[in-house]
Amino acid sequence: MSALRVVVAVKQVLDPEAPPSLLRVDPDTLEVSGRGVAPRLDPYSMHALQAALGLREQCAQHREVEIHVVGIGPSPARNLYLRVLACGADRVALLDTTEDPVAFGDAWVTADRLIALIGHVRPHGWDLLLVGRRAADTNAAAVGPAIARLLGVPVITMAGAVRIADSGADCDRVVVDQLTDSGSNVLSAPVPAVVSVSHEVGDPPVVPFSNMVAAKKMPLEVLTPTELERTRVAEPASPESRLCGIHPRDDQRTCELIEGPDARDAGRALARRIVDLDHSRGG
Amino acid sequence: MVEPVNPDTPSVEDRGGAPDPESVLVVGCWDADGRPDSGTAGVLAALGDLTATARGVDLSAHDGDPGVADAVTALIRRHGCSIVAMAGGARTEDLAARVAAGTDGLLALDTRAVTPCASGVRIRRPTFGGAFDAEIEVERSRVLVVSFDPCANTGATPTAITGMLPVETEPGHVRLVEQRRDDRTPTLGGARRVVAGGRGIGGPGGFDELAALADALDAAMAASRPPCDAGWVPGRLQVGITGARIAPELYVAVGISGSVQHRAGMHASRTVVAINSDPEAPMLHHSDLAVVGDWHEVVAGMVEVLSGDGVAPSPRRHDRSTEAQP
To answer: Which of A154, A249, A256 lies at the smallest CB-CB distance from B288?
Structure first.
């Protein structure tokens, strides 16, 4: 049986767990940066990687699963992608957009470039493209469905579980537990298909250091937009939409830490603060 | 109660393919008497004057039908709608993204406000996990699909739509194999105060202990995802990006690390209290009051003060004996 060809799209973002107070907005470019905030791979895209690893486990006895990881963005941090290889990906290919960035939130340009990158990595086609449910910076969910639309393939979003059902010689179907407000719907679609993956699939494993050492010998390729023939003079997001502001939320909370000689005493003090607050609001 | 659309309305082809800048579509649920459900009413209120020419699409009869996205996409193209609005939730997160893709449009999830401006509309939506609001100007020449943050209550009165468009789905490539309903239907919406436990509670026994605090505060019980997935508590207690999205007066998060997915469900709470043994837990950065320490002891101290103080005069209204046991 031929190998199952899985592609996982990951995104490098500023650490989403960093305290918001460390983030700054450039007033001219509206770019958000963080002093001392490390880059991380977007958590949902790591769940997409875990879904791919899960498929490999599912098929372990009878079929190989090839996992190729792609990503686009400025200033890729190599060690993050070594970890992806150490977890079990077979290959990583990145498009470095430092010189030719995509405007924040422009899903259609992102989709177009990812399609070019995936075509470079898997020129003979692929079976499943796994993406994260949302991106931690834009909080958008547009790119997966946009890729599906551009390629004319089905898309299933919000997968809590992903598996492959073999139903014949050329007729693989992907089976997904799609999360709903009241449980889940089990959906199936023929491959090739795009699936966006939610956190319910779990996290990729913590890898031993020896895997990280071995990963350095594995294929990790970084391309420029020129090499991929996807250059575009840096421009604002498609002319029909324009990012005109990035504003810190007014309701950032400043935490008042309640302390005491011991935890129980701190609890008493906390309760008294809550009662005071309640009374001052006429509750 | 479906009213036919005026056949004299110019079609998209007559307009050269561009959406009609006046045309708004509200995708939601209405009952047999034509009353919108609370999410749909929230959308109508948030749209304000933009609803003057809005039409509706009723999803009530199409739960679980994977063909809805394609059907709504076809309607938008046929009628040239330029704004498509729905209430936020798991179902619309899927529907909105697929409809935006199908119409070559722009997607704006968890939108807090849509206001008309000179060139079209301005939308405001959270980014960076809620740390920043992005303000985006969108021209009406492109389809814009918005889902509204259910907790962004504008306080405006919902206005009525001018008519309904029928949804006709067809079987497509994606097939529904099975619908599974568990008990995750959110019931926390009306609670004024909520006590929520996370992985740090350690097990179902810990939640029994936490119930004493909920009693003392006259609060509803809730949980982050891990205790629900582990079966410590029923799934309907789950608060998060999947699960209930609530905005109570008081939210007490005990042993909850505070992932972005969880915070998406409670960020609009008026006062947030965090109790955690880990001083680096993200929840602490997103709370108003916090104690770092062993939650058993902290909660015991709170219950002492609250029970003595008569904060909760009413008897326990959350009858846990009727909860399904995991």
So the answer is: A256
